[in-house]
Amino acid sequence: MRVVTRHLLFTGLLVLLAACLAREAPAGVSDRPRAAAQAPAAGQARPAAAAQEWPALPPPTATYVGAQACEECHKKQFATFSQTQMGKIFLKNPRSPAEARGCETCHGPGSVHVAAAKADRGKGVGTIVFRKDSPLPLVERNAICLSCHEKGLRLNWRGSPHEGRGVACTECHRVMVNVSEKRQFVKETEMETCFQCHLMRRSQLQRSSHMPYREGKMTCSDCHNPHGTATPKLLRANSINENCYRCHAEKRGPFLWEHPPVRENCLNCHEPHGSNHDKLLKVARPRACQRCHVEQFHPTTPQRATSRFVFNRSCQNCHSQIHGSNHPSGVRFQR
What we know:
Number of strands: 2
Number of domains: 3
């Protein structure tokens, strides 16, 4: 009985499958008339989009049309650009044939873009745009900037941390509008431009002990070169200590008695971007010293009667020349 049931079920499935496969379109009906209906009639012009595909970027055959052609449509952008540092050079006082091309120096030859605009084919067709969604790869967009800005501070851009992280020139600099007083930053100040990514540094500079960044006496590029250096952390000098010595020359030495951790690295004791402890110390005194000096029976240890010296300036009550001493008896940095 069970075998007969299975046989009937299998037979029914075959019949259902055959019925599905046997379904055909009604006689005289096919897809050809539909395709013919969609085709344009004889003598009728095809739509412009089908007649010509507009390239996203300037093709090799594109030609230069001049900045006046750009101004016809982009009056607002042209007016603001003419007031920027680059605009005053490109449009009023070009120093080379490339700069004399004006807008097309960066955006490429505009003949195809102008033709596409007249055909009402949308924005950004046939020209180089510097938005994040640009069809031109980021490396090639940056290369356009580097074709002029390749010397000086930008010498080490290739292979730098910012290039490796895919940072575009236009993420820090805004060419078309004056936002900052100098260097055409995307924010009003250099620090605000850097803080777009470096949020931790923003918070550190709000601490009680900080370098005079907030007061406008320093800026990020006083210590770092964002376009790349031969040293770690984009430092301007050859080492962290040399970077600090550019301002703190009195700590450079040479000293008759050197304090080894000071000579090794200023960051052993200090946090340069901001601290809640005096003198940008990573740890409050006396603990800043006790991270290394853990010996017993020192006057500052709790079991000694002279432990009162740990207050106020702490260890520096006695060891006042903590960065190094030139006194013949300064082995303990007391004079």
